[in-house]
Amino acid sequence: MPQRLDAGKTAPGAQRALFGVAGYLRHCGLEETLLHIVDLRASQMNGCAFCVDMHWKDARSAGVSEQKLSLVPVWREAP
Fold first, then answer.
1. How far apart are alpha carbons 28 and 42 in whole angstroms?
2. Counting C-beta atoms within 10 Å of the first and last residue's C-beta, which end of the chain has fewer, N or C?
């Protein structure tokens, strides 16, 4: 899927800030699979198809089941 926006060129400060938060989260002690799910949900909320695709693949590679990933948009109703 082609990327439609180059955030590094459009808003480099915002991209640096997001990468800073992501770097902190990667070392804060949360499970890797949970972080992938959080990334996926944030991308869904942002409406970024490129990022949803990327984070879905990352989560699957980390061992998150497709069933669990399919319930992310409706997490409040999921067991």
1. 18
2. C
